[in-house]
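#struct-pred

JT: dropping the chains for the assembly here, can someone run the whole complex?
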Amino acid sequence: KAGVTQTPRYLIKTRGQQVTLSCSPISGHRSVSWYQQTPGQGLQFLFEYFSETQRNKGNFPGRFSGRQFSNSRSEMNVSTLELGDSALYLCASSLGTEGNTEAFFGQGTRLTVV
Amino acid sequence: AQTVTQSQPEMSVQEAETVTLSCTYDTSESDYYLFWYKQPPSRQMILVIRQEAYKQQNATENRFSVNFQKAAKSFSLKISDSQLGDAAMYFCAYRSPPYSGGGADGLTFGKGTHLIIQP
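RK: done, full complex below.
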């Protein structure tokens, strides 16, 4: 069974540009969450999607957005990139939305903004 | 909002010995879920163990066990018979029940503890 796949693995963008990251969940998983990991702030929750609906969003500016498709694949978009957006972006998928459901993480996309 | 605190940025243990990683959290909720995740150098987060707050019995998974003290809001991880493959960053995480209105439904992570295994 394939795990969570995130593409691309590495990305370099220039300030002001926008970027789209992709996440393919484990087959059968309907919930996808996104996290930002930086040395300073640690792991922070961005948003969670279930059945194409955003369930909740963390404390991030509107430049961060996402969506989920009918096949549960998810994308997140960051517009008008800032240097501080440089981070490892992790995607996690789970079967459902029960609190104790195990979240399976991908290997992340390393975004560098220059 | 919930917060998770891991007071040990780094811990070192000899191979085959036992180590305990600390985690405290702050919440006003009575029902919630707690997790320990491991992040090796490959950066892929792996679930180590989970605990439902309503369960008094401490969770155990092979060499990994927790000491869950609900009143003290403490959730420590004990690793027995430490192995070289246990070397990684360990993150304690909290999650509210779905639709609880307790804030973001995602995981709230601590800053992590870097575990070093000495051969």
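JT: nice. DSSP finds no helices and eleven strands in chain A. The radius of gyration of chain A is 13 Å.
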